[in-house]
Amino acid sequence: MPSTVTAHAHSWRQILFDLDGTLVDTTPGVLKAWQTFAKEYAFNGADAALKSHGRRLYDTLQDYCRPKNEAQLEAAVHCFESIVLAGGPAVLPGASALLQRIGAGSPETASGWTIVTSSTNVYAPQVLNVCGLPVPPLGLVTSSDVANGKPHPAPYLAGARRLGVDPKNCIVIEDAPSGILSGRAAGCIVIAVCTSHTRQQLVASGSKPHFIVKDLTRLSARWIGEALEVSIDDSAA
Asked: Which of 72, 131, 132, 187 is such that its CA lies 20 to 30 A from the CA of 95?
């Protein structure tokens, strides 16, 4: 334990998790997918991977691949996600333990959490299954459920609606600037994890999360009545 730890304990009703880069690491598959598409459509795959992180494939593949119609776009999205799944997604540190703590002892009137992801409703359940993580009790919000993706507030507003709570009573956990901006625009408190970006990169992005933590091992949760108390260690180490 570092000698200088900044610890905070706050109570919220629900937690809205991002998926890729927050709960699971899909980096090898994502990079392979961008390399594959870059060769076919003649663009810089590394640049696309960096700039597109956290955004919907539906939006980014339109930008880079210019599909001729909706059917081509949907086929490209599913092809991309298949490559990501084949790349061997893995659970990120602290994810399983945190979800177990949220699920344990939760009151009947509160599910405690959901997932708000830029991936599709085909991919998201599959990656959760591969990684051995539970599907949220009230379902999840995917790119298939919203007309506007992150950084627009629509995804996290939809997440709050799914759980039946005011967004201001939700905490968002994100790894990407686009998702952080989405959560803030929805009126949520946002915790950023340094899993895909460094602390310095997150600060420089201008996305302004309320807290920045190393990863999910720096968060702890417990139920106090129908309130979810989340303890945050945002020390830099």
From this structure: 187
